[in-house]
Amino acid sequence: MAQQLQAGSLLQPPTQRLLQQPSQKALPSSLQRLCGGGTQALASTSQRLLALPARRRRLQTSATIAAERPSKVAKPELDWESLGFGLNHVAPTMFEATFEPEHGWQPGSLRPYGPMQLLPSAQVLNYGQSIFEGMKAQRSAKGRVVLFRPDMNAKRMQAGAQRMSMPTVPEDVFVEAVKQTLRANLDYVPPQGKGSLYMRPMLMGTGPILGLGPAPSYTFLVYAAAVGAYFKGGQLTPIDLIVEEHFHRSAPGGMGGTKAAGNYSPVLVTQLAAKTQGYADVVYLDAKTDTYLEEVSSCNIFTVKGKTIKTPPLQGTILPGVTRRSVLDLAQRRGYTVEEVPVSITEAMEADEVFTSGTAVVVCSVGSMTYKGQRKQYNEAGKPGPVALEIYEALTSLQQEKAEDPFGWVVPVA
């Protein structure tokens, strides 16, 4: 029988505040309650879409997830030793649900991974209403399949939806959709230590529209793929970065802190140029002064000096990474001084060590960084920095249940 979930709170506090403390509330298998209300700002930008008055009030809607697994498919024969980060091993089942202002979130269901039907006038194709998340499921040392902090991804997508004038996906519905997609694709979760099942929740304005405005309808979906290390050299191989001196990834008051699809393609021009020169990726500086580190194309960045770990603060221009927050909490617990402060490029070039973090990259040591033609080599060539390695091992041991989880971050699913 299908399990039914009522929608949770539609609007949450801003992402930065939400990512400071993970939610500890347990998610029941069946929940019925009214949805939380919107804000005046969201109502004014999406009044037609969400049918909200100018003043704050509650919007009653429901989202039902059909948890039945589609017809069984043949068990895949995958080469777990050669997994890369791509779509060579896409899981066969995905989740999909739709939203219409008159009816709210409609019952979602699992269906075969495949093409979507979109009109050329779909809002997402013309005006780019699209946000997404990245998550990983892994097999643990306890013989379970687990997720890592899925509630944080749900909250970040809610904040992104508010910024993009889109209907928010209730947290419990988001998490349950991810769990159902995972359970339907367990055969694509690699053996422990061989990789992970990368999960991609997406929210898109799929309804047709000609003039600029919110889409008349939306689609929330989750698909997955078995993956290995993000960078070609392997998970623990240090990467070489170059500092971008012309383009900027984001600016104050812009979209840098939102995981919107449109934030990523603009970095390709610099990333591809860097790769032709032998670099793995690009480091961006702040748009106001060209002085302070912001982030790498798809991950956050940290510097190490002695027992102090620094990372740029969340001020709306960089993504509030779930792994970033986890690294800071882990490092502090392990005795490091942790600072979320502006880090100048000069200070970074004089650091003992630099590393990056993200769902895809996990924790990755930076082997070298080049700025204005000057190359700074960190650590011994080809070997990860000791702090990056320590944090990586601590984080992955926790994620794979090799070590105790004092934070309650790991969520068993199967």
Sheet bearing the most strands, described? Answer: 10 strands, mixed
Structural class: alpha+beta
Helix-strand pattern:
HHEEEEHEEEHHEEEHEEEEHEHEEEHE
Rg, alpha carbons: 21 Å
Q: CATH architecture of the largest domain, please?
A: 2-Layer Sandwich
Query: What name is given to the CATH topology of the largest domain?
Result: D-amino Acid Aminotransferase, Chain A, domain 1
Strand content: 15-25%
Q: Count the strands?
A: 19
Count of runs of 4 or more consecutive helical residues: 9
InterPro entries: Aminotrans_IV, Aminotrans_IV_CS, Aminotransferase-like, B_amino_transII, BCAT-like_C, BCAT-like_N, BCAT_family
Biased composition (Low complexity): 10-22
Pfam families: Aminotran_4 (PF01063)
Region (Disordered): 1-25
Describe this structure in words.
This protein has 414 residues and is of the alpha+beta class. It has two domains: 15-228, Aminotransferase class 4, branched-chain amino acid transferase, N-terminal domain (D-amino Acid Aminotransferase, Chain A, domain 1), CATH 3.30.470.10; 239-399, D-amino Acid Aminotransferase, Chain A, domain 2, CATH 3.20.10. It has nine helices and 19 strands. It has helices at 15-18, 40-50, 123-126, 150-163, 171-184, 268-276, 322-333, 345-349, 386-399; strands spanning 65-66, 93-100, 104-105, 108-112, 130-132, 135-139, 145-148, 196-204, 218-227, 239-243, 281-285, 293-296, 300-305, 308-311, 337-340, 353-358, 362-371, 374-377, 410-412. A hairpin with a 5-residue loop joins strand 6 (135-139) and strand 7. The longest helix has 14 residues, at 150-163. It starts with 14 loop residues before the first helix and ends with a strand. This is Branched-chain-amino-acid aminotransferase.
